[in-house]
Amino acid sequence: MMDTSKLSQVRILVVDDHPSTATTLARAIAQMGPKIEVLSANSGENALMLTHNKPVDILITDMMMTGINGLELIEKLQTHPAGRPAYTILITAYDVPGLKITARRLKVNEIIIKPVRPERVCQIVASAIADLGGTLPAVLSDMKTQPKILVADDLPDNVALLSRYLVNEGYACLSAANGGEALLKTRTEMPDLVLLDMNMPVKDGFETLQEIRSDPAIGHIPVIILTAARLEPMDMQMALNMGADDYVTKPFDRRELLARIRTRLRVKEAEDIIRRRNKELNLLPEIGKELSARLDVDELTDVVLRRTVETLGAFQGHILLLEPDGYQRKTYRFAADEYSYQANLPDMTAALNQIRDTRQGVIIGDVRRDARWLAQPEDLTRSVVIVPMFGRFELLGLLVLAHEQGGYFLQEHMLLLQALASQAAIAIENARLFLSTKQEWQRLGAVLQCAADATLMFDLARNLSLFNIAAENLFAKSALRLGQPLTEGAGYDVFVDLLAEAANAEKHQSRDITWPDNRIFRVTITPLEGGYVASLHDISDFKRLERVKNEFIMTASHDLRSPITMVRGFSKLLSQVGPLNPDQQNFVRQIQSASETMDALVQSLFELTKGDLGEPLQLADVNLSKIAANAVQAFGSQVKAKQQRLTFVSQSAPIKVRGNELLLFRALGNLLGNAIKYSPQGGKISITAKVENKTVKIDVQDTGYGIPATDLPFIFDRFYRVRNGNTSQIEGNGLGLAIVKSIVENHGGQVSVESELGKGTCFSVTLPLVSTADPALAVPFL
User: Fold this and answer.
1) N or C: which end of the chain has fewer CB atoms below 10 A?
2) Distances (CA, A) of 2 to 6, 14, 79
């Protein structure tokens, strides 16, 4: 390799067997600066002759040439006596299999796929000169692409004449000697205009024109017919009907021909703008459709970058995604040319801060003069457009397109890109949400599969949608089929009925059920949006332990009754033995009070335990109105003592329920006693019995201290007592409401409570009716 440490003059060789192509490209490179010497050759042999005495610094060669092809020329110059080219660019029309491997072996620096834009080559040359140690030429940011015209004529003299006219006018010129070659070059080189002779070998002008117009990729290219013979009106009409834009008869007037060419190029430029706008507008629904079909972020970014780079003519695109805290998360990149240099995205902090402040995109016309784009020297980027991707709550990232031409991007580009970025942001948010949901489902699935409790999920039609291994082991395998309801008659009908109850009531249901194998499960069914979830927790061991505990408590309660009775009896006999002094009398009263309290506690425990053990109740048809009236009468003295007013409201006819009269009296008595106890002097208490459908509802309402909302879920628990300023000194064992709940539920009823602190409490007992009768009658009790 030659010494480039003191490079002051750059020698560049352009080789192409189409002289007009080589000349056009050489002229564009020569405009880059006075210190650039550009040579052109129309064959590999000619190139070797030009470099025989003096080597070149940069070689630009076409791949397919007659004689020595591009790769062969590069290989021969590798052994040049004075040194091989320091930088090599290979231009090819096709990505031939194995080309990249061979090019890499020959140390080719760049491979460019046709069609070739002169400004693209100039940018690569500028970067190469900088790499070689020379002064970087100022590639003009407003460099305009030369219009490319294809001359299709089988007469070399005509081609030479037309090419000279066109090159002198600043056009890039291609040539074809027959219709087949004209079609091939039209497809590979994409000229801006075709001058088409009528009489050519292989394919005549009419056939060539027809194929051009039938090909959507090249059908828009204007064609001017050239003919040496004067066409008949019918022939000319046919040519125009086939899509010819104009015709010129030979011999032609040079000025007229050039005027017609300029006119057609102006029309094409306007049409190109319209086509580009239509393509850009069509991109929005197209890319929206593509994005809606994808839920992978990598696929989404690839689609957005590929479509925007292709549509807006950028040579490279980037998407920068941000973490929720604002730090860079990941960068995606796409290049229009896989062989071109792909620059990394520079530090975007400055542009990012500006976009966060303004919430608007940014266009940088010349990145070399803008501190917001700190690119590396080898970066070919000259202009960029940056738009934000805003999600619903935050900035998700940036969409960046780069172009090698300065001032390329316009406001209309940014508006289109912003619309695309908004679609991309929605798609990326949806993809992230989908991924998050998927991960949550995976975690939920892992938890469910590891859970010891059987868990099943049903849709609104009670069809099974999910179950875990524990459920599969609990149910017969034949009973669990996804998308179908549970099989009835397999021993699980109690569970199926409970599921139906939960569906009809649309509220949480919980119940203990006995499985066919005599295990006891606590079943909890919870309505969800779109279905229900059921869990079955095996409480068989707990139930066995609870029964042992209850039997012990029942035995202990029974055995404690005798000694407590003896303490109470002997304490009453003490005064009969002899006179007691005041202290002794006080001690006796305390013994009697404590024994009475102990007796009440033992009796309560005994009754609760009987209910827990499920001992059969002695049931009969009883009049609940009479039981409530008796309870009111029993507490009359306590009401008078606190100067309270008690009202009982019930119908005159009996309200019959199936129950145990003593237990129901105890339940109502506990509620009424609490109402009196927790209401202040002069308070009001009411008991109301009301028949509703096939049930009777008894409300015990007071104007007492009320129960704090935080205590309400626990007041039916055993030994639970509300402790606040007004009730802390009131005596009680915390079993009264637990007894009420046990008695009511053992009678097939329900008990509930509503309370407002400082205003009072209402306990409601609902029991099934045996029979109903007439209107209510208010009965006041003092």
Assistant:
1) C
2) 11, 19, 12
